[in-house]
Design a protein that fits this description.
Number of strands of chain B: 2
Largest sheet of chain B: 2 strands, antiparallel
Largest sheet of chain A: 6 strands, antiparallel
Largest interface: A-B, 73 and 52 residues
Distance between the termini of chain A: 33 Å
Strand content of chain A: 15-25%
Helix content of chain A: 10-25%
Oligomer: heterodimer
Structural class of chain B: mainly alpha
Number of helices of chain B: 6
Distance between the termini of chain B: 37 Å
Chain lengths: 572, 175
């Protein structure tokens, strides 16, 4: 084991090169800083994607975190023995230059103004309706503080969305105020209008789903050009072969590299942030040969996945680990995620060409229920949800063999139904909010280790009664929409599983563990995402989000990263 | 990895219970599913080399923990297909592949609902679910992996197949 140092000390080392790391590297380097970016995965090039329109290749997790290097363990409650995720399932963090943005569906949705409410505001409004063990975290900023950064993220990534404002026909009346329109107009597909019409009929407010898959060629404000989407449908679980999806690798990372001040090192697995007193001095990582290398730096930016950031802090002894019994400490608290449930509405007399088009592009969404009052008119739960319909963006056919409920799972009858109903299905997606609870937390596993012998991260989490109710309500609303469309059958769950399931894909929307906030006792980073305890350390990414929204966290991760870069450049 | 002749015949017979021949589509085995499965079992995933393998292996106390067996897919097939055949001989008096199609389907039903018990270290329900997943992959996956011969299952379904990647494209940001 060698411990070698580079001769030159960079202004910053960035750990992880997804959206968060890519944005930090680009912004810091553009301001003149030298940056070393460490990424555990490989560089992904166009040549790697020549044969990528192959759903079996996607299923083999080519661009996802390698669990033989590092997995996670999960237990449903503190009394249970945690077991490792032996394979990827519930979530699929990316691995490679571009991180999870290589694999996502290309949706960049802002959080809503109400998501930034303080705990005091929430208690004043909802009082006893809030679960007793809720650990709602204050952000220390409001929606209006993040809005300019959301706007810039949408311009960098080329988000196409409704051009109508919130109060105009076709706009989303539930979104927060915007300083400008989406930079690209929406794609329209008549085949999904059936959903919009049914939603309107039910008094809801459908609008075109905003997505980064480009309807037309686009050059972002930094001069990075992307080609338009070719509609191949291979979006989820793999990088876009032609770069039409807005990924870190096709937007901010080219900007970072163009400065000439960013050195990207791939195959580098960081295992420790080295610190002395109240300052960090660099990081230690295993290189591709497995050697342990010390990389000194004037500043450290942790920008890996929510789980990775939290684990690195715990492995390094930075910050006070959260104790769910006493409620004290901060590192590992407020783990949260999204509820993601899908239904298939089957129509005997309609087909949808579901193999054409990127995730939800040309589809429609209703945000009426992101408002807690609309979501639960009789107060049966707290939390919001959204419902959308559009192309699945999962190439091939294996994920689209949908049959009416009650059909056998194999044999001649199943086979005939598979063929008869192929492409007669409209995918409805529901995304629900998951609140943070005292017991939902992250710490180091006492038993299971990574490939180098370092403890894995342990997740203590299960669905709580509030979320079970929210999910049932959400599915009921989705089924009402399917009925209003005239669906002949609806296939899908009626609510959440008995326990959180690590096998079925739930979404890679994990958040928390190193949350931001105004109070150093209950948060790990300040509202600029700078460590409270180590003033030249920033912890950027999903880990900073105090609690999830119904919307996925990606746009918020990006906006917070831009804001954190501003913090580095102005304060340190 | 290649299966022995008996295991191959057992797998082909079970695959054809799941996806039999129809008037206008060959059966799973005629589409090349056995080749697909053998290639998969020889791959990193099939050999378990993409699986987190650190001990201890424990039986989950509740649902939601997924695969917690130390066996790779290759080992499950190797032991499972042999045990399945032995069980068929015991239950129905002949090797699985030798039984009449109706009898095979009955036995496949007992595998699928778990009533066949444990076969080669795995519950029969789990074994059947794994085989079913791989049969579907072999039938409907890209023909380059050895199944879905000539894209016949895609044609039968009405799926045109993935569009080819234009090679004369300027790929913009993805160089």
């Amino acid at each position: 084991m060698s411990d070698q140092s580079s001769d030159q000390v960079p202004d910053a080392v960035v750990v992880g090169l997804g959206w968060a790391g890519g944005i930090m590297a680009a912004e810091l380097a553009r301001a003149g800083m030298s940056v070393v970016a460490l990424e555990r995965g490989p560089q992904v090039t166009g040549a790697d994607l020549a044969d990528s329109r192959d759903e079996l290749a996607v299923r083999r997790n080519r661009f996802m975190q390698d669990v033989t290097l590092e997995s996670w363990t999960l237990r449903h409650h503190a009394g249970e023995r945690a077991l490792p995720l032996r394979n990827l399932g519930a979530w699929t963090p990316g691995s490679g230059v571009g991180g999870s943005s290589l694999l996502y569906g290309g949706l960049l949705k802002r959080f809503y103004p109400a998501d930034f409410a303080t705990g005091a505001e929430l208690r004043a409004t909802y009082g006893d309706r809030l679960p007793a063990d809720l650990t709602w975290g204050d952000w220390g900023i409001g929606y209006e503080d993040l809005e300019p950064y959301y706007q810039r993220v949408e311009e960098l990534a080329g988000v196409s969305g409704p051009q109508a404002g919130p109060r105009e026909p076709g706009g989303n009346p539930f979104e927060g105020p915007r300083s400008g329109p989406y930079p690209v107009g929406p794609r329209v597909r008549s085949r999904y209008a059936v959903f919009a019409e049914a939603a309107e009929h039910r008094g809801l407010h459908p609008f075109p789903v905003p997505t980064t898959a480009l309807p037309a060629d686009f050059t972002n404000p930094d001069g990075v050009r992307r080609t338009h989407c070719h509609e191949c449908g291979f979006c989820l679980g793999l990088p876009c072969a032609i770069g039409a999806k807005g990924e870190a690798a096709t937007t901010v990372i080219p900007t970072a590299l163009a400065t000439g001040r960013v050195e990207v090192r791939t195959g580098c697995y960081v295992v420790e942030v080295v610190h002395e007193g109240d300052a960090v001095t660099g990081v230690r990582y295993h290189d591709q040969q497995g050697r342990l290398v010390f990389q000194p730096a004037r500043r450290v930016v942790l920008a890996s996945y929510a789980f990775g950031n939290t684990r690195l802090l715990l492995l390094s002894g930075i910050g006070r680990p959260y104790d769910p019994v006493t409620g004290t400490g901060a590192v590992g608290r407020n783990y949260s995620t999204n509820i993601s449930l899908k239904l298939s509405a089957l129509f005997a007399d309609r087909t949808f060409d579901n193999h054409i088009g990127s995730v939800d592009s040309g589809g429609f969404e209703v945000d009426d229920h992101v408002d807690w009052a609309t979501a639960a008119p009789t107060g049966e739960h707290v939390g919001g949800f959204d419902i959308s319909a559009g192309p699945p963006g999962r190439g091939g056919v294996l994920n689209r063999l949908v049959t009416p409920p009650g059909t056998p799972e194999w044999g001649p009858e199943w086979q005939a139904a598979v063929r008869a109903w192929f492409d007669h299905d409209l995918k409805l997606s529901g995304h629900g909010q998951v609140l943070p609870y005292r017991q939902s937390h992250l710490d180091l596993d006492p038993v299971y280790r990574d490939a180098y012998g370092h403890p894995l991260l342990r997740i203590t989490f299960d669905w709580q009664e509030n979320e079970r109710r929210l999910a049932r309500t959400m599915v009921a609303r989705m089924r009402e929409l399917a009925a209003a469309m005239g669906a002949d059958h609806v296939r899908g769950p009626s609510g959440l599983d008995e326990h959180f399931d690590t096998v079925r894909y739930q979404g890679t929307h994990n958040t928390g563990g190193a949350i931001m906030g105004p109070d150093p006792e209950s948060s790990v980073v300040d509202p600029g995402l700078r460590s409270w305890t180590h003033r030249n350390l920033w912890v950027v990414g999903g880990s900073a989000i105090p609690q999830g929204s119904s919307a996925g966290p990606t746009a918020t991760i990006c906006a917070l990263s831009l804001r954190a870069a501003h913090d580095v450049l102005t304060r340190g | 990895m290649s299966l022995d002749a008996t295991a191959r015949a057992t797998l082909a017979a079970l695959a054809d219970c799941i996806f039999p021949a129809t008037e206008d589509c060959p059966s799973a085995s005629d589409l090349g599913v056995v080749t697909y499965v053998e290639r998969h079992l020889a791959s990193l995933t099939g050999r378990g080399e993409r699986t987190y393998a650190h001990p201890p292996y424990d039986t989950p106390a509740d649902s939601g923990h997924g695969w917690q067996l130390s066996l790779s897919h290759a080992e499950v097939y190797e032991c499972g297909l042999t045990a399945l055949d032995a069980w068929a001989r015991e239950t129905a008096g002949a090797a699985f592949a030798e039984l009449a199609p109706e009898r095979r389907a009955e036995l496949a039903g007992q595998l699928a609902d778990g009533s066949a018990g444990e076969l080669g270290g795995v519950g029969s329900r789990q074994l059947f679910a794994l085989v079913r997943e791989h049969v579907l992959e072999g039938v409907f996956g890209d023909p380059r992996h050895g199944g879905n011969r000539d894209g016949a299952a895609w044609r039968w379904l009405g799926y045109p197949g993935p569009p080819a990647l234009a090679t004369d494209l300027s790929l913009g940001a993805r160089a």
